[in-house]
User: What shape does this take?
Amino acid sequence: MTKIDIAVVDYGMGNLRSVSKALEHVASAKTVLVTSNPEDILNAERVVFPGQGAMPDCIRELDVRGLRESVKHAARNKPFLGICIGLQMLFEHSEEGNTSGLGLFKGNVKRFAAADMHDADGQKLKVPHMGWNQVYQTQSGQVNAANTAHELWKDIDNAARFYYVHSYYVQPDDARIIAGYSEYPSLFTSAIAQDNLFAVQFHPEKSANAGLQMLSNFVNWQP
Amino acid sequence: MLAKRIIPCLDVTAGRVVKGVNFLELRDAGDPVEIAKRYDDQGADELTFLDITASSDNRGLILHIIEEVAAQVFIPLTVGGGVREVEDVRRLLNAGADKVSINTTAVLNPKMVQDAAGRFGSQCIVVAIDAKKVDNQPFEWEVFTHGGRNATGLDAVKWAEYMAKLGAGELLVTSMDRDGTKIGFNNPLNRAISNAVDIPIIASGGVGNLQHLVDGVTLGGADAVLAASIFHYGEFTVKQAKEYMAQHGIEVRL
Assistant: This one.
């Protein structure tokens, strides 16, 4: 069997070409496989769990393909990168369609509350949160400008901008897993980390040099 | 905070980038892949490609262009022009587009917007609204289709609300009165739509100088500003545009 360096989990929700192209760009010597076969995910050296669309559909399609257990196994055992809904699905529950997630982390996925969506000047803030926002790197949930301790932040400036498009954000019970915050208009968790797992709300595959650096860090990560 | 986006727009036909005034007098502006890479290097936040090919003969060309750009440029890519059915959306996304812009078809068949958003997610569905100021209607701005030729009888602001409700993730608002004129965005139109919907709007049509970009945000309430000719002919780089906006107090990605 051919060795799979990086498996990108495909559960039929939208376009994974951007993710696989960006991974191929930073890791030209590696095999990148977009797959919906649980065996491939179990055999891969590292796993990327992307996602777009609505969380109820994502969970349903994941189960239709029998991918739930292989994804959970990967999240506990090998270098694992969750992106966007691929971050949100790791939690217990989402307000979006009142959906149960994979439950790997305690906490909820919440919608940006309409009543709060104004900036300091009273201008309306739109939902989805779409575009480039700063990410404040943290360790164990503490904002610390000097701290770039996590390997996935290597060579990325604190407060570098990444590309977002989402209407929901994660709220972990355990602040120690928080690896990054962004502000819209309040601080929300935009990255989490634990052992072999890193997951982000933004789209590194669409975030120009900062995003490519993160993907390159992931490809070389030995947790 | 979230940055306001600057989006260079590439009108593409027969595999080349072109630019005209009010869709006439098309001038060649170069190779789409080269131009896309240049704008990415200058710090463009996204790129929009509009396939303005009139006949269906060369439709496949845009897919090849997008494939090539998507393998080299890692910022969001929006593609529009001639998108008629959900299958067209799928083809463009598979070629590497991140968002697909729907214009005339949204008017002819609004359900297509709903179907496409339901299938691929609102995040990748942009509805393009071409609006013109009119005197013969009980409202100020009317939606036009077919590149501004056909009046629809629709109020652009009400139409924007309806498209948001059907699942559009973003609106690209083009003032047909301003497009190619270089006298600035139609800020009252953009402000009216921006106030009416919760989703982001992209202002388009009429940029002639960098102050117009600032006005698009401050007066028009745009979340993103789109421009073509000021970038294509080297009048300004995207970086210069962003620096100018930053100097005028607008949050941008530098």
